[in-house]
Amino acid sequence: MACSIVQFCHFQDLQAARDFLFPHLREETPSGALRRDPSKSSSWEDDGWGAWEETEPQDPEEDGNPCKAQKTSWLQDCVLSLSPTNDLMVIAREQKAVFLVPKWKYSDKGKEEMQFAAGWSGSLNVEEGECVTSALCIPLASQKRSSTGRPDWTCIVVGFTSGYVRFYTENGVLLLAQLLNEDSVLQLKCRTYEIPRHPGVTEQNEELSILYPAAIVTIDGFSLFQSLRACRNQVAKAAASGNENIQPPPLAYKKWGLQDIDTIIDHASIGIMTLSPFDQMKTASTIGGFNAAIKNSPPAMSQYITVGSNPFTGFFYALEGSAQPLLSHVALAVASKLTSALLNAASGWLGWKSKHEEEAVPKQKPKVEPAAPLAVRFGLPDSRRHGESICLSPCNTLAAVTDDFGRVILLDVARGIAIRMWKGYRDAQIGWMQIVEDLHERVPEKADFSPFGNTQGPSRVAQFLVIYAPRRGILEVWSTQQGPRVGAFNVGKHCRLLYPGYKIMGLNNVTSQGWQPQTYQICLVDPVSGSVKTLNVPFHLALSDKKCERAKDMHLVKKLATLLKTKPPSLDLVETEIKGLILDIKYPATKKQALESILASERLPFSCLRNITQTLMDTLKNQELESVDEGLLQFCANKLKLLHLYESVSQLNSRDFHSDTPFSDNDLAVLLRLDEKELLKLQALLEKYKQEKSRTTTVRFSDDKDGVLPVKTFLEYLEYEKDAINIKKISDEEYVELGSFFFWKCLHGESSTEDMCHTLESAGLSPQLLLSLLLNVWLSKEKDILDKPQSVCCLHTMLSLLSKMKVAIDETWDSQSVSPWWQQMRTACVQSENNGAALLSAHVGHSVAAQISNSLTEKRFSQTVVGADSEALTESWEALSLDTEYWKLLLKQLEDCLLLQTLLHSRASAPAARVSHAEPLPRLSVKKLLEGGRGGIADCVAKWIFKQDLSPEVLKLANKDRDAENPDEPKEGINRGFFEVPEVEVNLGAIPDLLHAAYRQFPCSLELDMLHAHCCWEYVVQWNKDPEEARFFVRSIEHLKHILNAHVQNGIALMMWNTFLVKRFSAATYLMDKVGKSPKDRLCRRDVGMSDTAMTSFLGSCLDLLQTLMEADVSRDEMQAPVLDTEDAWLAVEGPISIAELAFEQKHIHYPLVEHHSVLCSVLYAIMRFSLKTVKPLSLFDSKGKNAFFKDLTSIQLLPSGEMDPNFISVRQQFLLKVVSAAVQAQHSAVKDRESSEEAPTTPFGKDQDWPVLAVDLAHHLQVSEDVVRRHYVGELYNYGADHLGEEVLSPRECEVGAQVRDFIVGVKNQESLLSFLLFFLLELVGTKTEEY
Questions:
Q1: β-strands 89-93, 79-82: how paired?
Q2: Whose CA is closest to 15, among 58, 71, 53, 65?
Q3: Most buried pick, 538, 593, 878, 1041, via CB within 10 A?
Q4: Nearest to 837 by CA among 883, 773, 792
């Protein structure tokens, strides 16, 4: 077992965090778009991610010179901290910070993994201009007795350049803040409680240490823990009660002013230490000289180590308590000032008030306590060397220091000397790992009498130094103090090494004994791959190579791995060498690891694997029982049994076996217990399914390796436990591969079925497991099975043999109960999406089940009836059981599902698919249909209709035969409100026949109204995804108009309006009212989400929908609500409520309100259709009318009534006359185009409205004189020379008078004068003043 690096967590969206912390990098993305996955968590914007918009614009010079390297190395410029329990990570830069929390999610491969997602983000600064310099995530222990070892919550401690230290919750709530020194905070470090390994080690207290440029502050851990808990509870109470004026409890701290040192960059708080008498006297002599006084009891001191310059490393010692001075007057002078630094109550609390409240109160700098001076005791003087960081080992005896020369120096903390140096590690990041020996891995040695030579002695502890060199992109693990490098990994040049150096705060010598929290000693954050990794270092790597048997074993394992990778010149020589290597290995665990690598090799043949395993097995058996590892012996025995099984199955599959028994359709009918008619129906159904499926499936080349499985893969799939063979958790494809190895040759008649079943049963495979493997192979190889009907006979034989095995069918099984054996098979058929193979297997299962049921019933009946009487009785009846009924129900369901799947596979013979971007149709199974709800079947067919883009007329045509079979059924509303759709000029092929068969198979689920309702909904859903596809919405309205029952039609139309249309409709209304004309394409896309052409079609379809809704409301009371029935085979359906059922639940509409919206829709449609200008749609309505728009169509609203203001009527009249003029002009230009091109013009809006008639109808609703609109229409027709059309519009009296006038003015040459005279005469004739016109 070697050192390894393990990935244990991913970042869900690390790039979004980078964009938040580095806005200038975000702005450099192409076209300014955010390259963030839309499926990721949206909490970034919800939790203050909008701060992106608040960032100040960058200078043009900065924008013009982007740093490409910063896109990958940005993490090096951030303040980073990870909780040792891995429940929180903080990434901060300047004033901003992101708090990341872990969440369990499924990866792209379907495996569950932990991912860091944003929990909070925002700005942390309170003072203007202050920035974050250091951060810690400290998990706090739970005080509950039922705690499982996880922390109660995690506190985030942040230091700022202003000198403030602030404490936050995981949600970014400020708990408390303290100004301990007016200089910038350089570093925050924490120490938590650890149980002393032996009595000679001093018990260390918890503390939080804060480093300033010339001072160090230590906060007692117990006091901090209690204060943070109290603050968090008070914040919760304040949030609940609304009272924020709660003062936090005081906090005790010590403050030392560090003297006699130039600069300080980093520090380490070693903790309390007690000198030995010799060290005490040596120190007194060095500092106090000849006259130094010595006390009998050595004083307790707190040791601090700093790194910086002059000295490069400084050692400080602060006396604890009020003990008498130990040294000369110099020591007395220092001790006299210690009392001012002990347990000072913190002053100047800022509390946790909100930002607006803090700004309201004038900010006052709190009082800062003076620091007690503390001189450096000694150091490592090196004027040219500048220290950069220091990292203390977990045992507090060693410390690693980095400097600006690219060195890593190992210090002995107690002696204050450098004991080792590594070169070539510039900008290195360091950490430690402490590994405890596992007693179970020890191997007792007879000649070793040390306490570490047996499994009962104390556990040893090893220290490993981890160095990350970003310049080289390498992560190294070194054994300390003088040990070798035990591991090295290439990890990239932009990572960050995180070493917290603490665990959970709030524990003591009592509570920590029952806690075993999972903590990570060291982590590596890789921003390129977005992963978090940790190290696994085995303890034995710290042992000496000369005396470590495990190291020798690892050397043999590496030699074995190299041998397995090379191409062997001779298999015999390789086999002999491998046997020697594995027998030389001492440790059983390593020997097992070596055997596993041998069995996983692809280069070694089966015979070699068997011989090596057998040799190791024989060697273990010949040893003394006391020295043999039972686990290894059992492992070898299990692998040998699996190898023997593989050999037996391979031999059976390689035999030359062919069944010469002829097979006819009559034999198949007898085998499946079907008569001739039923067999022909089954064959026809399967043949049609096979034909349609072959048109849609891709080409699959035949696989000659079916039934062949490498021994390596075989051993990976199976495991032997408790005298039985089980299958490991493998994928579905691997499951089929294993089943093919056992049964594929048997199903093809190329291997003996009886011998195979006997071999598998004797090996320890359970019948249930074999049945599962057999069904998986059968159901997955559908194409091959349908091409070879003889395989049905082989399946029947195999299933009969499996059913006769022990424990397959319980002997006490009663015919009135459900057999678990057959239920397992039915469940597999229900879940299968290969319906053809499932139907055949269900017929075989039904036949075998009936055969076994009859034999058991005959056996039991013969025991009660004598001889010939029993024979006569059993020939005249068939045994009935509950299983038989379940089989019949399943056969009907599978037959229905097969027919439906055949329909979904079929398609029209068109040159190109009309809906090319449609989603692929789902593969059906009985389970999916049972879980799809009562509308699931119609929904599947509707998706298929949408993909084929079939006209509603095709559905009606396929349903004519069913209508002819039931001529007495009323055709309610069949001519109500739908127009004929031209036939689709494509070859439909077998679609009408399949649709007709589906109608007969599902008379309730595919009732025509239900099918049209689902098609209508499917089309509008697809249109909503892409509003530019206006034809989808048009086709949806066509299906809506083909719904005959007004109850369904009313509900579907109302649901469409509320779900998809009303928001876009209101947006279009406000946009057109704002611009006062038909808006341009850019504005339509911005406000409505579609182009101007698509919006025109959208408004026309909305008008059709509203008119259909009003017609349905009128007819609704005259019709009865249809009854939603379900076929008998599908009564057990469960799932979501169907569209039809939702439609029935809709309320009655308020007819005048729908009519009011219809008028507005007509106005909008006319403006867009003819590109009218200087028209504001809402100006045509008064305040009551405006307020009623876009309200719920089922609500009662106050609508305009009575006489309208003449000003509104004048505006409305002008609008209607504009519409008529534009309509006649468009009609005249269309006629000219038709004459010139001799082809019918096509409009992008579908079938156009009869606008003059619509204008007259609008005049009625808008209280405008209809005669004025109609006369204007006639005048426009005469103006464009369409006299015959004008005469059709005029009444008989008007036509007669017009003829007399025409005779009178025959001689008039000026046509314009003639037209004016004619119009004037007509106006005078009907008594209308010219001024009104």
A1: antiparallel
A2: 71
A3: 1041
A4: 792
CA distance 509 to 495: 37
User: Are 1061 and 1105 spatial neighbours (Cβ–Cβ below 8 Å)?
Assistant: yes
Q: Which two tokens stand for residue 1165?
A: 């449609």
Diameter over CA atoms, the chain: 148
Closest CA to 930 of 899, 902, 890: 890
> For residue range 894-941, what is the model confidence (pLDDT) as tens digits?
999 999 999 998 887 654 445 656 678 888 999 999 999 999 999 999
Comparing CA positions, the residue from 1064, 1151, 1055, 1159 lying closest to residue 1110 is 1151
**Using CA atoms, how far apart are residues 1098 and 234, in angstroms rounded to an integer?**
57
Contacts of 426 by beta carbon, 8 Å cutoff, 6+ apart: 406, 469, 471
- At residue 442, does pLDDT exceed 50? yes
pLDDT at 298 (0 to 100): 79
Query: Structure tokens of 549?
Result: 């048997």
Q: Is 699 exposed, middle or buried (0-12, 13-18, 19+ CB in 10 A)?
A: exposed
Torsion from C-alpha of 1035, 1038, 1040, 1044, nearest 10 degrees: -150
CA distance 368 to 364: 12
Q: Which single residue is written with the structure tokens 């989400």?
A: 1089
Helical residues (DSSP H) of 120-200, grouped into ranges: none
Please state the three-class secondary structure of 911-977 as a single string: CCCCCCCCCCCCCCCHHHHHHCCCCHHHHHHHHHHHHHCCCHHHHHHHCHHHHHHCCCCCCCCCCCC
Distances (CA, A) of 916 to 380, 453, 920, 955, 988: 76, 74, 10, 21, 17
Nearest to residue 806, comparing CAs of 761, 854, 851? 761
Structure tokens at 54: 């608040």
Q: How far apart are CA 632 and CA 590, in angstroms?
A: 10
Q: CB neighbours of 1108 closer than 8 A, spacing ≥ 6?
A: 977, 1037, 1040, 1041, 1049, 1053
| List of residues 6+ apart from 373 with CB closer than 8 A | 256, 257, 259, 334, 337
Q: Are strands 112-123 and 4-11 parallel, antiparallel or unpaired?
A: parallel
Residue 284, Cβ neighbours under 10 Å: how many? 20
> Encoding tokens for residue 804?
């006769």
Query: Residue length, the chain?
Result: 1333
Q: What's the CA gap between 1135 and 745, in Å, rounded?
A: 41
- Please tell me the distance from the alpha carbon of residue 769 to that of residue 738, in angstroms, as a whole number: 12
| Residue 1273, strand partner residues | none
Which residue type does 143 have?
Q
Helix (H, G, I), strand (E, B) or coil at 1036: helix
d(CA 78, CA 18): 10
- Helix (H), strand (E) at residue 103: strand 96-106
Backbone phi, then psi, for 926, in 5-degree steps? -60, -40
The per-type count for the chain, helices as H runs and strands as E runs, is: 46, 32
Tell me the C-alpha distance between 35 and 531, whole Å.
19
| DSSP secondary structure, 376-403, as one string | --EEE--TT--EEEEEE-TTSSEEEEEE
User: Of all residues in the chain, what percent are helix, strand and coil, respectively (each to 5)?
Assistant: 45, 15, 40
Q: Which two tokens stand for residue 740?
A: 């093919």
Return the SS3 of 300. Answer: strand
pLDDT in tens, 232-252: 888 888 777 766 555 666 677
Band of the pLDDT at 327, cuts 50, 70, 90?
very low
- Nearest alpha carbon to residue 8 among 80, 72, 82: 82
Which residues are 477's β-sheet partners? 466, 487
At 1013, the pLDDT band (50, 70, 90 cuts) reads: very high
Tell me how crowded residue 1209 is: count the other CB atoms within 10 A of its CB: 16
Distance CA 593, CA 586 (A): 12
Round to whole Å and give the CA distance between 1173 and 972.
44
